Amino acid sequence: MAEEGSQHEEGPVPVLKWDQGLFEQITRGFRFPLEWDAQYPRQGQTAVDAPPGYITLFEDFFLQGNFRLPATEFLSHILHYYGFHLSQMSPPGMVRVRHFEFLC
Q1: In sequence order, which residues have a C-beta less than 8 Å from that of residue 78 and are 6 or more positions away?
Q2: Distance of CA 82 to CAs 63, 72, 78, Å?
Q3: What is the reported pTM?
Q4: CA pair distance 37, 80, nearest whole angstrom
């Protein structure tokens, strides 16, 4: 039972709890070009609410998965070979791919 006054969202995908400061730190720190038009999600949005032509990437992807943009051709080839989309990768999986690429 939820506590009174708590904001519990119903639905199959949990509402994102974003920190705009961290979003700005990532977009500046990883040098996102302005033409990428990275967007901070609106309050109450979920990962599936990305506008057409956009994908959702989580902070853990960058901070724990060592993901960088633009992605390398190696990563693109690996994803294509295994039939994965970038959004299906987890941070630990990304670390493994990046480590394998580095070793090659």
Answers
A1: 84, 97
A2: 24, 16, 6
A3: 0.61
A4: 25
